[in-house]
Amino acid sequence: MQSTGIVRRMDELGRVVIPKELRRIMRIREGEELAVYATEDALILKKFSAVSEMIDFQQEYASSIYRTTGFTAFITDNDRVVAMSGDLGKCPLGTAIGDLLEDVISSRKVSAYDGIDIKPFFDGNVDKVLGQVVAPILMNGDVMGAVVLYLKKEPTELAVKTAETCAHFIAGRL
């Protein structure tokens, strides 16, 4: 464990402020959940992601989206890709989502892109991607991640409704 040299005092209610610099580096946002672990001589705070806690389910779900629709499917939490299936846009699980996708999902609305508006969220065969749909996974108004679909044609209402329905379904499982 690396020391930051930062010391904070606990208040009478047991609260400790996490320094802004560390929150920025760790991408910890207001309202985000943290898991607390204790060892013999340390407390450990770890970012908690309900989406990545169910990684086997998410991978099977991404695979079923691809098998039934032909859409390449990515499922993310707020920081990383937790599941992926399809033949467009390969990326290793655990790949950071990046600021561009983070901005899109923080809008809390379903977004569709085609033509020159396509956003290169992930590496891979993006030259074959002719459409994208992003649906944020929302639980109690909080963004928990996103369903991102890469399409071999321009987005249709079916693609938009598929992404939206998948995001709602995942949120209901959290």
| Biggest pleated-sheet summary | 5 strands, antiparallel
What is the count of helical runs?
5
**Which topology of the largest domain does CATH recognise?**
Beta-Lactamase
The poorly predicted ranges are: none
Please identify which CATH superfamily of the largest domain we are dealing with.
GAF domain
Percent of sequence in beta strands: 15-25%
What is the mean pLDDT?
Answer: 85
User: How many discrete domains?
Assistant: 2
Radius of gyration: 18 Å
CATH-scheme architecture of the largest domain: 2-Layer Sandwich
SSE blueprint:
Blueprint lengths: L19 H7 L7 E5 L4 E5 L2 H4 L1 H15 L2 E5 L4 E5 L12 H9 L4 E4 L16 E9 L2 E10 L5 H17 L1
Antiparallel strand pairs: 1-2, 3-4, 3-7, 5-6, 6-7
Describe the protein's architecture and organization:
With 174 residues, the protein is of the alpha+beta class. It folds into two domains: 1-48, Pemi-like Protein 1, Chain: D; 51-173, Beta-Lactamase (2-Layer Sandwich). The chain is built from five helices and seven strands; from the N terminus they run H-E-E-H-H-E-E-H-E-E-E-H. The chain has a five-stranded antiparallel sheet with strand order 4-3-7-6-5, with helices on both faces. A hairpin with a 2-residue loop joins strand 6 and strand 7 (142-151). The radius of gyration is 18 Å and the shape is elongated. The protein starts with 19 loop residues before the first helix and ends with a helix. The mean pLDDT is 85.
